């Protein structure tokens, strides 16, 4: 069945790129509502923004959604990943600023809050997007692909990254995201960047709220953030976290295999646009009990949150 959050839960902190403080509150919503954002600081005009792939405005460093009135919210990928990974299908996300708070740079604070608030079943079947044909997009630097899932699986993800900084280097990982895998394996993985890129991001008004506490910064073979990486392959795990958040903008869980090679926010959104432009490549299905067990949020428990976070 579809679910919503049991009770409202709030999070406070600066945005990673704007540095502006914000309060984000996740509230329950009715069945078939989906995920919507509401800019509470916007007093005139349309403050509601659907968390949907066709509302995304291209940005290389984060995911930003914007409505027809030009009202936007950026860096939504971590909270979207938490909602998808915990199995929340319907929610209203209120925010009093232009960017979601970065918190510790991962999804784990959102996951803790969601699971503490609990989930409420809504008596309406979950509808999912089943991938029927392979769809791929590529750029000179990377590619992303969605293809049909193996029988009995929900969303499987394979990701590969390759950085010149030895602290990251080449990493690859493949996971079946069923039955709480996101919470156990990915939710505590933090955003990261190269020290060499920080000045360039500042020059274009990005990463103004970034610190060594809410992002992992590397310089060659050194990790500048205190404590280093939470996991040896935290970087590729965070890329998978981002991808789940961006795929959640499809509007329903995806049943298929996502593969990313040096992919980012813009490429994953381009992949969704290519998917929905080809009607023969997908179909909407109502999930039976067996199918629902293969979804990312099925059977998630609070004690599965990684202790390291």
From TrEMBL:
Residue sites binding Zn(2+) per the record: 78, 238, 242
GO annotations of cellular component type: membrane
Biological pathway: Glycolipid biosynthesis; lipid IV(A) biosynthesis; lipid IV(A) from (3R)-3-hydroxytetradecanoyl-[acyl-carrier-protein] and UDP-N-acetyl-alpha-D-glucosamine: step 2/6
Pfam families: LpxC (PF03331)
SUPFAM superfamilies: Ribosomal protein S5 domain 2-like
Catalysed reaction equations from the record: a UDP-3-O-[(3R)-3-hydroxyacyl]-N-acetyl-alpha-D-glucosamine + H2O = a UDP-3-O-[(3R)-3-hydroxyacyl]-alpha-D-glucosamine + acetate
Keyword Metal-binding appears in the UniProt entry: yes
Catalytic-site annotation from UniProt: 265 (proton donor)
Cofactor(s) demanded: Zn(2+)
Any one GO MF annotation of this record: metal ion binding
Annotated keywords: Hydrolase, Lipid A biosynthesis, Lipid biosynthesis, Lipid metabolism, Metal-binding, Zinc
Listed EC numbers: 3.5.1.108
Keyword DNA-binding: no
GO biological process, alphabetically ordered: lipid A biosynthetic process
Family the entry assigns: Belongs to the LpxC family.
Function of the protein: Catalyzes the hydrolysis of UDP-3-O-myristoyl-N-acetylglucosamine to form UDP-3-O-myristoylglucosamine and acetate, the committed step in lipid A biosynthesis.
HAMAP family found in the cross-reference section: LpxC
Protein name: UDP-3-O-acyl-N-acetylglucosamine deacetylase
Protein source organism: Sagittula salina
Gene from which this protein is expressed: lpxC
């Amino acid at each position: 069945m579809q679910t919503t959050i049991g009770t409202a839960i709030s999070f406070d902190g600066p945005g990673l790129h704007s540095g502006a403080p914000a309060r984000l509150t996740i509230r329950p919503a009715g069945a078939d509502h989906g995920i919507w954002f509401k800019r509470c600081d916007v007093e005139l005009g349309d403050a509601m923004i659907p968390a949907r792939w066709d509302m995304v405005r291209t940005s290389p460093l984060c995911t930003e959604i914007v409505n027809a009135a030009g009202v936007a919210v950026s860096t939504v990928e971590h909270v979207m990943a938490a909602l998808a990974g915990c199995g929340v299908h319907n929610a209203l996300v209120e925010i009093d600023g232009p960017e979601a708070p970065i918190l510790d740079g991962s999804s784990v604070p959102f996951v803790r809050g969601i699971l503490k608030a609990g989930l409420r079943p809504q008596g309406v079947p979950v509808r999912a997007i089943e991938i029927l044909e392979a769809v791929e997009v590529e750029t000179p630097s990377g590619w992303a692909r969605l293809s049909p899932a193996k029988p009995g699986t929900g969303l499987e993800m394979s990701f590969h990254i390759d950085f010149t900084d030895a602290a990251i280097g080449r990493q690859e990982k493949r996971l079946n995201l069923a039955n709480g895998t996101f919470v156990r394996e990915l939710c505590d993985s933090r955003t990261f960047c190269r020290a060499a890129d920080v000045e360039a991001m500042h020059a274009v008004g990005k990463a103004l709220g970034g610190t060594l506490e809410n992002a992992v910064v590397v310089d060659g073979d050194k990790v500048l953030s205190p404590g280093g990486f939470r996991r040896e392959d935290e970087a590729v795990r965070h890329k998978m976290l981002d991808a789940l958040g961006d795929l959640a903008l499809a509007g329903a869980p995806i049943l298929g295999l996502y593969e990313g090679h040096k992919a980012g926010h813009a490429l994953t959104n381009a992949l969704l646009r290519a998917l929905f432009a080809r009607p023969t490549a997908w179909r909407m299905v109502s999930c039976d009990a067996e199918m629902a067990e293969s979804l990312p949020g099925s059977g998630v428990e609070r004690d599965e949150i990684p202790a390291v976070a």
